[in-house]
Amino acid sequence: MKKLFIIAALAAATLSAQAQEKLYLSTYSGTNLARYDGKVCDVNVSRYVFTGWNTIAMPFDMSEQELNDVFGSDCRLECLTGAEDNGNGVTLNFIDCKAGGMKANTPYMLYYTGESGTKKIVKQAEVTDAQAAITYATQSGEVVTMEAVRTHTDGKGFYGVLARDNAEVKFVSVDSENTNGFYATRCYVRLSSGNSKMISARHLGEATSINAIASQDELVDVYSVSGAKVASQLRASEVNSLRPAIYVIKGQKILVK
């Protein structure tokens, strides 16, 4: 019995040690996450955010409450849900997704209303080394990708949001501006045709009903608020049978209760 007790105690100590592994994430040069992949760690992050719009991606999940605790209850979290040609370039459609929290390594736009400065994220979380990018094609076939930055890069040929001009989501070509590139935990946008086009952003409105945007027999593609396709060519009349959640259909936010 004593031997079994010692073995059990050692096993518990091992699990505790694994759960308490510490990760100090560099938001400048980046951190090699391979050794932490799949582990529950005590995460410590110091991330500088500017008043206005910021791009953000973390290698762990954060709930809506955690986002509010760190960035304030007035913060907004938006994800890319589509792209379209607008005649002068490309328009990116963003939708509010804070209610679903922030998913690991997924690129987001974060709107911060406080004073510019360093915000600390201290929590226990499962860390993942997987890379998640969101990709859409416009009507003309232009492929738009929004992706997280893992290590500091000059980002030549990509688009980013300038810290000095972030009251709006204004994406500019890195080649045409004097920038420091992209630091880790930020995100960039790239176009398959290069960086010669103008990019604008649209913030989609509040959730609406499926009946307002599609006829009952219309076949629609359904996406989650993080951009993952949930269903292909689903009859509009069947959308309300999906599990309760917020979905994106035809660029509009749909609430299924």
Could you characterize the architecture of this molecule?
10% of the residues lie in helices and 40% in strands. The chain has helices spanning 2-19, 64-71, and strands at 21-25, 40-49, 52-56, 76-85, 89-96, 108-112, 117-126, 133-137, 143-148, 159-161, 171-173, 187-191, 198-203, 219-224, 229-235, 245-249, 252-256. The strands form five sheets. A five-stranded mixed beta sheet has the order 3-6-4-5-13, with no helix packed on it. A four-stranded antiparallel beta sheet has the order 15-14-16-17, with no helix packed on it. A hairpin with a 4-residue loop joins β14 and β15 (229-235). The termini are far apart. The model has no long low-confidence stretch (mean pLDDT 87).
Structure in a nutshell:
This protein has helices at 2-19, 64-71; strands at residues 21-25, 40-49, 52-56, 76-85, 89-96, 108-112, 117-126, 133-137, 143-148, 159-161, 171-173, 187-191, 198-203, 219-224, 229-235, 245-249, 252-256. By secondary structure, the chain is mostly beta strands. The longest helix has 18 residues, at 2-19.
Name the features:
five-stranded mixed beta sheet; 17 strands; globular; four-stranded antiparallel beta sheet
Total count of helical runs of at least 4 residues? 2
Order of helices and strands: HEEEHEEEEEEEEEEEEEE
Helix content: 10-25%
Shape: globular
How far is it from the N-terminal to the C-terminal residue, by CA? 53 Å
What structural class do helix, strand and pairing data support?
A: mainly beta
Neighbour order of strands in the largest sheet: 3-6-4-5-13
Radius of gyration: 21 Å
* Main sheet overview: 5 strands, mixed
What is the residue-mean pLDDT, rounded to a whole number? 87
Number of beta-strand segments: 17
Low-confidence stretches: none
- Report strand %: 35-45%
